[in-house]
Amino acid sequence: MLKQQPEQQSVSTVQNANCVVMVPPKEFAFNSETALDNEFQHQVNQTTEQVRALAMQEFRVMADQLSDAGVQVIEFDYPLGQIETPDAVFPNNWFSTTTEGALFTFPMACKNRQQEVRPDALRAALERAGRKVTSQDSLVDYLEQDAHLESTGVMVIDHRNKTIYAALSQRCDREVLEDYAERIGYGRVVSFQTALPSGKPIYHTNVMMAIGEHFCVICDEVIPEFERRFVIKSLAKDKQVISISLEQMNQFCGNILELQTDKGDKVIAMSQSAYEAFSPAQKAQLSSHARLMPFNVQTIESIGGGSVRCMLGEIFLPKS
């Protein structure tokens, strides 16, 4: 469960990004490939055109409001290909960045999601937006072993303590996870099992937990008891632990992200459904750390099975 890595060149420990990549949902639709292990997805009785119009409206409002709050938003558009990418609106699953200028890309589990991985185009967009990429690295070769690691979908990272938390699943392979930790010099990997009432594991760690600078939100009841105590003890060393129920997780209370504005203020991005599902006491706890920013992304989270955090690819790259 706990894997200590040898010390490598270590990135600096900024917890909150002040810049994010967002991808417009122009091909958004119910993804039957990902639905095989994502119990958060739902079919709807709307046309594709209606769904995409609603999703684009939700995306636009969220991008504009984050930008107005002082978070740099880089909109990464892309040309249409032969294979549609219905989940492209969730870019945090295929890349990550470091404060030292590294851009990583990851092995995605589903074929149509592998089409989203466009490192050269992303690098060009980042550099146009004034962010400096000094190196590129990829774990995509693990696809040859049928091994996957869907970036910050499956890894919830405590940068201050150089610790990666990860729920193991077919989208989160232990070997790839430990390889990535070693490459970025993070010496501690806390991996664990999970089980939903159906018996299936959580498909992405970031629907069950989030880590801010001084707090964490976690649905610990999905973790087996013998591992749960260890995970909570590790988090509680220097974080306020806010435990959410299975019902709250299903409203995406775990799928939130603390960000920093250009003035240094902190905000917590979350969906309106998550905001409404948090108890008044939990909202007060979260508000003591940052301003809460709820967004109505009902179409995206219901059909796509991911919410606000999934829509945000954190950019830690230095300014050029």
Automatic annotation (TrEMBL):
SUPFAM superfamilies noted in UniProt: Pentein
Pfam families: DDAH_eukar
InterPro entries with a match to the protein in the record: Amdntrnsf_FN0238 (IPR014541)
The protein's name: Amidinotransferase
